[in-house]
Design goal:
Blueprint lengths: L3 H7 L3 E6 L5 H15 L5 E4 L8 H15 L2 E7 L5 H13 L4 E5 L20 H12 L4 E6 L10 H13 L4 E6 L3 H13 L6 E5 L5 H11 L5 H7 L6 H21 L4 E5 L7 H8 L2
Parallel strand pairs: 1-2, 1-8, 2-3, 3-4, 4-5, 5-6, 6-7, 7-8
Helix pairs in contact: 5-6, 10-11
Bound molecules: flavin-adenine dinucleotide.
Length: 290
């Protein structure tokens, strides 16, 4: 299957989706329907997250394989370092390769809730650049490698300049492109791009978009990952937060505006956090795709 960086050769902008492996059989069955419908929107690629600890690792790879095999759409397997030793990562990468998966999103991951104090030992990777280097050393160009970027700085590294330098290390160790954490102030993205370009980074930095569908849920989720909920967003969504229909419509309108501004400002595409749903991405993407 084509590697994501090879798609970039022919496309100035890519449109992609992110899914996660459901915990239940019913969720899995529903996801198969969602994938079919998302495939109809003709994304350039679809990625699937990987649970830290690896409990649903096979599901991630099954979903990625399904997307590739059934819909001939490039698909990206997220892969986290936490809890895995180098040997385990090697066996996972062998598994990935034997499934003809050619795209990974290399991540550190976070210690799982049931093992929050886990810290890396000598056989583990501490940071994502070590995983990038390991994959390149052992597998050459077999994989297209994406990594995560944080326009507001990673939650553990709020010094944005320092965090940008860490991103450069990931790219210098073999990563091809970047998908960002979601954000709601486009200035944060554009300033991030300036910061990265001033470090000599040329790779594509694809903005991650999380459409707002539930305001209280968003507040909880964003506090865990460090995304700022701007005053504009609060003013717009808070007064009607108990009306799901109005929230959904506002979320679509907000995302359309955010995406149009990003694309007009030079963003090389959009990566939507779909949360395993077709809607509202099916309303947003056709309105913004260029
Ligand atoms: C697009 C996207 C997809 C994601 N998918 C998943 C997923 O599928 N599964 C999952 O569990 N999590 C996922 N995450 C969350 C991610 O695992 C966490 O945000 C994690 O805390 C950081 O991962 P990272 O790869 O950016 O880590 P790193 O790049 O290793 O950074 C981790 C921390 O260390 C700092 N740092 C980085 N390099 C260095 C260095 N060389 N020296 C010192 N400090 C350094 C960084 O500033 C940061 O604070 C995703 C995040 C994004 C944005």
């Amino acid at each position: 299957m084509i590697k994501v960086p090879d798609i970039f050769q022919n496309k100035n902008k890519t449109y992609s989706f992110e899914l996660f492996p459901p915990k239940t059989e019913k969720g899995y069955t529903n996801l198969m329907v969602t994938i079919k419908n998302l495939a109809g929107l003709k994304p350039d690629f679809i990625s699937c997250t990987y649970g830290a600890g690896g409990g649903n690792r096979d599901k991630t790879f099954d979903i990625v394989q399904h997307i590739q095999d059934k819909y001939a759409i490039a698909s990206v397997a997220h892969l986290t370092c936490v809890l895995n030793t180098r040997d385990q990562i090697k066996s996972i990468l062998n598994d990935i390769q034997s499934r003809n998966i050619t795209n990974i999103l290399a991540l550190r991951g976070d210690p799982p809730l049931d093992n929050p104090d886990w810290t890396p030992g000598p056989d583990n990777f501490q940071y994502t650049h070590e995983l990038c280097r390991f994959a390149r050393e052992l597998y050459g160009e077999a994989f297209g490698i994406g990594v995560a970027g944080f326009p507001e700085g990673h939650i553990l590294c709020p010094d944005r300049d320092q965090d940008a330098r860490y991103l450069k290390i990931k790219l210098d160790h073999g990563a091809d492109y970047v998908i960002t954490q979601f954000f709601y102030n486009n200035h944060d993205y554009f300033e991030y791009i300036d910061r990265l370009r001033s470090l000599g980074i040329k790779a594509r930095i694809i903005p991650g978009i999380l459409p707002i569908t539930n305001f209280d849920g968003l507040l909880r989720f964003s506090s865990g990952c460090g995304t700022t909920i701007t005053d504009d967003v609060k003013k717009l969504f808070e007064p009607t937060k108990d009306d799901p229909r109005i929230t959904l419509q506002k979320g679509i309108d907000f995302a359309v505006q955010q995406c149009q501004e990003l694309l007009a400002g030079g963003a090389p595409g959009l990566h939507f956090y779909c949360l395993n749903k077709l809607h509202p991405v099916d309303a947003i993407l056709p309105a913004v795709r260029i």
